[in-house]
Amino acid sequence: MTQCAQFASLLFVFLGVGTIPTPVLAERPYNWKSSPPPVEVFAPVFEKIWAAAAEPETFRSIKGNALFDRSGWSTTAALPGAKESECWLKKDEPNPNMPANVRSAEDRQGHYECSLNLKSADATNACTALARVLQSSARDWIVTPSAPKKPERSHVMFFKKGEFSQYADEFMFPGFVRYVALTVFPNQCSFDIFARWVPNFVEPIFAKVLDSGRYSKIPTAEASPVPSDGAATISISVVNSTAFAADTWFSGTEIRGKRILPGSVWDFRISPGHYKVLAQFLVTKAQFDSGIRRSSLTPAYGSQEFALGTQYTFRLTKPAIVSDGAIPQPAGSTDAADSRLVESADAEIAKAIGDLSRTGATPSVAGGPVHSTDAIDSEVMKIVNSGRYSQLPVPIISRYGNSDTTYIAISNDTKYSLVIFISGHTSQNYTIASGGSLDVTLVPGSYRIVGIVPSQDVIPFYGTSVYGGGSKYTYRFSIK
Fold it and tell me: Based on C-alpha coordinates, what's the Rg of the chain?
């Protein structure tokens, strides 16, 4: 096996660690050849760079002086283990073939680059070490290898689950994407963070379905009046009662979309107004092998006006299946999510690319098993459907941190270990020892939280809420 192949394969056996303590460490020299920095040194600097990629003026907070020997700027955030001269902010030239109306604004052009100049074998080893530390810095990376272009020897991209990417569960910010690229060259390991504004990709999806004329009417939403809570948004739930994963889109005043797994529920809030709604169904390998093709599943489409003071619930039902003789009707197809068919298309792709978040990575807090996203969502739904639970503790809410991040603090004041399941844009689970605490950061949005202790005398805790950015929610679990 070549060293580049080793790099690509090694990426898929690293373990993620989730939350990261940040103790003050004595400064010492690190390098990516023989002495890479530990996660607790790497992570705070990386998070600073990663956050800067999403700033209105990309990388403004870490931008230094203009460079005269190349097109770009110095940076105030050199990657640990790299020389300051190896890290900089590169100005990207606009693509003249891209229409002007979909190009990134001038203050949205550029990317962060650290070029580690090393000999061939050392370049491969350096990128491997970087991948290891990057994977260990968070649990929600989606790893996507791509075909290298000469003179590249290997090229791998890292997307954050919950952000726009072709493999993400939730398309959070249509039009914006940021990702890490690790590239092995003959004598260099290149670490890049890209931030891109891309053309509106949602409207073409609607247009393609409508132009085909091949769709069924989406079930009418159940509308229930709710007391006014003073919010300028409305609450929507989409229940996927089918055996298929469903890419579901709302396009109107805002654009929102999510891949909803079989038997799962998507809760979110949205501004009132008129929206087009589309659900496209996917098949897993097991479903494909049973004779079902994605092209045979009819999308569901409709439009609706959403008003304040109302809760709307959509229930996706079994899609119409088109059979042309070549595509057989699936035997025994029912709305029940058969255990053989529960796996989503994302999970199939994840297996192929070695998505560690779905393959049993090390728990971020010792003492509990790590579950895949599907398993976490399923565990939460079991508790909800049972109706046997007590309410979560009322959180103390305070303003805190960045506006694009939600902060959750949990203290376990029980005499048991406490298992926490968080289901939403990013699904995670943790185990907190008795008397312990945990700090978690999330993408703002709607989440379901379950807390379980190992005692038959204590029923689970459960609650759901919309968590805002720039806020800290402090929960204290106790048993009276």
Answer: 24
> Closest by alpha carbon to 352, among 427, 264, 257, 284?
284
- Distance (Å, rounded) from C-alpha 157 to C-alpha 338? 33
Residue found under tokens 């048993």: 479
Predicted confidence (pLDDT) per residue in 422-452, tens digit: 888 777 778 888 888 888 877 788 888 999 9
- 402 vs 48: CA distance, rounded Å: 11
Alpha-carbon gap, residue 82 to 118, rounded angstroms: 11
Q: What's the token pair of residue 332? A: 């025994």
Whose structure tokens read 């990057």?
Answer: 134
DSSP-derived secondary structure letter, 6: H
- Reference 401, options 310, 322, 469, 478; nearest CA is 469
CB 365 within 8 A of CB 431: yes
User: Taking Cα atoms as reference points, which of 341, 377, 464, 337 lies closest to residue 169?
Assistant: 377
Q: 96 — alpha (psi -120 to 50), left (phi > 0) or beta?
A: alpha
Question: In angstroms, rounded to a whole number, what is the distance separating the alpha carbons of residues 256 and 205?
Answer: 13
Contact residues for 184 (Cβ-Cβ < 8 A; gap 6+): 4, 7, 123, 124, 127, 148, 152, 153, 154, 155, 190
Q: Give the distance, in angstroms, between the CA of residue 282 and the centroid of all CA atoms in the same chain.
A: 19
Check residue 208 and give its pLDDT.
80
Contact 298, 304 (CB under 8 A): no
How many C-beta atoms lie closer than 10 Å to residue 379's C-beta? 19
Do 181 and 165 form a contact (C-beta atoms < 8 A)? no
Q: In the numeric block, which tokens belong to residue 415?
A: 């005499």
Terminal C-alpha separation, the chain: 59
Token pair for 241? 């009662």
Phi/psi of residue 348, nearest 5 degrees: -65, -45
Q: Is the pLDDT of residue 381 over 50?
A: yes
Q: Which of 175, 243, 259, 249 is nearest to 209 (CA)?
A: 249
Residue 118 burial (10 A CB sphere; 0-12, 13-18, 19+)? buried
CA–CA separation, 386 and 381 (whole Å): 8
Tell me which residue has tokens 């192929």. Answer: 352
d(CA 417, CA 435): 9
User: Please, which contacts does 68-72 make with residues 24 or more away whose CB atoms are closer than 8 Å?
Assistant: 72/110
- Is the overall model pTM greater than 0.70, yes or no? no
Domains plus CATH for the chain?
3-197 (no CATH), 202-345 (no CATH), 363-477 (2.60.40.1120)
pLDDT in tens, 2-25: 555 444 444 443 333 333 343 333
Sign of CA dihedral 411, 416, 265, 167: positive
Closest CA to 435 of 408, 463, 410: 410
